[in-house]
Amino acid sequence: MKSFKMLAAAAAIVAMASSSAMATFSGQIWIPSTDVKGFKEVNISIDNYARVSNAPDALANYYDVGVTAGILPLEKFKIEVGADYYTDNVPGSIASKNPAYFNFKAGVPEDAFFAGMPAVAAGMFGLNSANNALSTNVAYGLIAKSLPVIGRISAGGYNGAESALGKNQSTGLLLSWDRTMSEISDKLWLAVDYQSGNNMLGATSVGGSWAFSKQVSLLIGANFYNKIATGGKTTATTQLDINF
């Protein structure tokens, strides 16, 4: 579940014609998580981000279809790779001209080598062979720990391309909380995540998902961007995940 943007004056101009782009790494609502797909596990994600405003500075809606797969046959150390087709359906925009993006992640699950060990993950997303203004080339790292009653807490940081995110705006924090609401149903999962930075990635997101089966779940949420000039107005998001 998953984004990108630009530099100074050029950044603002391009942003008005396009939007941010998500990459469907294993994630929370907007940011990556420490979850990593196991060997031969495949996820197909169909994500929609619709602006709740039609104001001139709202920026475009956008859509992302992605595939992520686990490629390493180990239980305590996992690697996933993914590819996305992203578009904002705006004729002539950067996003519609260069819709292919790539991501990868490596991670170790909780308690892998000793009791109480947090999960650890690192990876990159927003990789685009065209090296355009949406190619954020973000590297990130995260740790996470599941706590009784409270749920899972994750924290980390990211560093991306200044040419996309802006000078002195290309680094920041990643924070999240998520929990399966077993008191209600094991199928219900809630989350809140935060990415700092006055760039196109900076946002606070809230949402929840319902697992219709082990293979299919649907997340519904909202993304509140830190700065309208770079992230645009709030988006409502739906994220359909199909697992094999």
Question: Keywords for this structure?
Answer:
mainly beta, 12 strands, Porin
What does this structure look like?
This protein has 244 residues and is mainly β. It has one domain (8-243): Porin. The protein is 9% helix and 46% strand. It has four helices and twelve strands. The protein has a twelve-stranded antiparallel barrel with strand order 1-2-3-4-5-6-7-8-9-10-11-12. Mean pLDDT is 88; it is low at 1-22.
Explain briefly what this protein structure is:
This protein has one domain (8-243): monomeric porin ompg (Porin). The protein has 244 residues and is mainly beta.
Task: Assign an overall shape.
Answer: globular
Number of strands: 12
Which fold name corresponds to the CATH topology? Porin
Binned, the helix content reads under 10%
Can you count the helices? 4
Q: CATH H level: which superfamily? A: monomeric porin ompg
How far apart the termini lie comes to 16 Å
Percentage of residues in strands: over 45%
User: Which structural class should the secondary elements be placed in?
Assistant: mainly beta
N to C succession of SSEs: HEEEHEEEEHEEEEHE
Which CATH-level-2 architecture?
Answer: Beta Barrel
Q: How would you write the strand order of the largest sheet?
A: 1-2-3-4-5-6-7-8-9-10-11-12
- Describe the main β-sheet briefly: 12 strands, antiparallel, barrel
User: Which stretches are low in confidence, meaning pLDDT under 50 for 5 or more residues running?
Assistant: 1-22
Radius of gyration: 17 Å
Briefly, what CATH class? Mainly Beta
Number of domains: 1
**Can you give the mean pLDDT?**
88
